Task: inverse folding
């Protein structure tokens, strides 16, 4: 086999676990310009909006088939008291957003505005509840307010505030980063609280809520282990249909950065070594999923309890001249490949990873969309395009990809494979995702396609001249997908040549 050629063997007729569309979930926190100025501009804004929600943002996210949106935090969630965000806007109490910029929050975007946003997006609501500074009663009343149909006290209050019908809330978070900003708790303490709080996040009427307990950071396996001890008899097959009391999933947070916390690295000014380092750190997600999954398997061999990676993505130093508390960063081709490498890992762990949420959707961290504070112009980032290219993976069955001959590069003391791949099948279409991590060299990959006849193919590729190329109002499509012409028939299936530093999808039509 020539040095620059790799092979990906895919059995198209051996579908694996389903990749939930919720793996492509999002996160919107009251942080910097994510909610205010990002999603929500208010009813008096010049920029086109529906009830204060930006129309172009909604359109862009609908094109991604955004499956769910997590709100109101993040760290903000454990300071948030939902009653402050209902009723007439001019009478809502103010608060200090102490985590993010120490700014005054006027609560003009609250429960009704968020649920309105979800309806406009066609996305499921993932509400993140306050354990750190809230109460059990407060959390219990929030889910009643949101989801109850009759004339209960909270349903009546919701009606007074203009909403007759209950909403659906399919996902509810029990705290956030309880080991840190969510209360600085020990896991033993939090595990007890999670059981208690979850009990009161009741299923009202037809609403069934999937409860997600705040999980570990990075490789804190002890946190996962102690939380998993919260469950009784998960190993008993007779209990397989029983809802996984007391909650249904635990979360995991992991961010990609190339430097230490105090100096995480620049989003746009980076060396080739830092390119590889970022991708190495992104590939570490695979290891985290394996290790947390092994701990979960010991208690839950039938994999009833989900792992929800409800914060992931790049975290760089803020753009020079912007508020350090607002976490506004640029987004380059490197961020796009960080995303594609994550998705390959999520696809491979589809039997455990039921949902993930990129941090965050607009104007914060690894955003899909950036808005210009002066002109209001909207830019789709390179990361946005990975999400767009991957929509065929939503709710498709994963396919194992056996990679042979992929080169590696020693980075940060470990071997980084320079090709990443995953695949899925849905009916008569299969989708293969291919990332060429090599900063300089193109790579040819033979797709050895077995088990089903392939009658057509179409490729798309995302790349750019420079590693740090990014989009801007002046050059909105500097990084945007185009047709991938270099897909050729091969005796074993197809042969694809990927440009250096690129992400591609090959869509296969199956007989
Ligand atoms: O996404 C930004 C912050 O990162 C979140 O508020 C917090 O949960 C995490 O530390």
Result:
């Amino acid at each position: 086999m020539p040095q620059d050629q790799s092979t990906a063997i895919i059995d198209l007729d051996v579908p694996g676990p389903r990749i939930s569309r919720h793996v492509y979930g999002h996160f919107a926190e009251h942080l910097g310009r994510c909610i205010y100025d990002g999603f929500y501009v208010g009813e008096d804004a010049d920029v086109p909006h529906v009830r204060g929600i930006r129309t172009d943002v909604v359109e862009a996210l609908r094109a991604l088939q955004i499956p769910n949106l997590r709100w109101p935090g993040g760290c903000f969630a454990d300071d948030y008291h939902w009653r402050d965000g209902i009723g007439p806007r001019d009478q809502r109490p103010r608060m200090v957003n102490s985590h993010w910029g120490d700014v005054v929050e006027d609560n003009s975007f609250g429960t009704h505005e968020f649920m309105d946003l979800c309806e406009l997006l066609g996305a499921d609501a993932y509400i993140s509840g306050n354990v750190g500074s809230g109460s059990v009663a407060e959390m219990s009343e929030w889910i009643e307010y949101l989801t109850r149909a009759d004339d209960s006290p909270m349903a009546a209050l919701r009606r007074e505030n203009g909403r007759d019908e209950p909403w659906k809330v399919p996902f509810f978070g029990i705290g956030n980063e309880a080991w840190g900003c969510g209360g600085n708790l020990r896991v033993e303490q939090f595990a007890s609280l999670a059981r208690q709080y979850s009990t009161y996040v009741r299923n009202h009427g037809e609403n069934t809520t999937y409860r997600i307990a705040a999980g570990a950071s990075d490789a804190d396996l002890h946190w996962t282990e102690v939380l998993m001890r919260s469950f009784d008899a998960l190993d008993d097959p007779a209990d397989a249909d029983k809802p996984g009391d007391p909650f249904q999933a635990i979360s995991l947070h992991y961010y990609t950065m190339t430097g230490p916390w105090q100096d995480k690295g620049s989003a746009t000014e980076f060396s080739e070594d830092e390119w590889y380092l970022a991708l190495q750190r992104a590939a570490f997600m695979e290891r985290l999923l394996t290790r947390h999954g092994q701990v979960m398997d010991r208690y839950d061999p039938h994999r009833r309890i989900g792992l929800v990676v409800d914060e992931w993505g790049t975290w760089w130093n803020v753009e020079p001249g912007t508020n350090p508390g607002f976490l506004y960063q640029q987004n380059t081709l490197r961020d796009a490949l960080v995303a594609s490498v994550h998705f390959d890992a999520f696809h491979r762990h589809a039997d455990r990873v039921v949902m993930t949420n990129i941090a965050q959707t607009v104007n914060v961290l690894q955003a899909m969309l950036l808005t210009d504070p002066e002109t209001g112009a909207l830019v789709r980032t390179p990361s946005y395009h990975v999400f767009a290219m991957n929509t065929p993976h939503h709710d498709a069955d994963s396919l194992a990809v056996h990679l042979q001959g992929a080169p590696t590069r020693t980075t940060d003391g470990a071997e980084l494979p320079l090709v990443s791949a995953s695949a899925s099948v849905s009916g008569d279409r299969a989708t293969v995702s291919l990332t060429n991590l090599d900063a300089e060299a193109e790579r040819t990959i033979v797709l050895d396609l077995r088990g089903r006849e392939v009658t057509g193919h179409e490729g798309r590729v995302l790349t750019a001249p420079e590693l740090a190329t990014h989009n801007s109002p002046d050059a909105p499509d500097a990084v945007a997908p185009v047709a991938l012409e270099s897909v050729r028939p091969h005796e074993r299936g197809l042969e694809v040549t990927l440009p250096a530093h690129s992400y591609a999808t090959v869509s296969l039509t199956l007989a």
User: Anything to note?
Assistant: The CA atoms of residues 363 and 370 lie 5 Å apart.
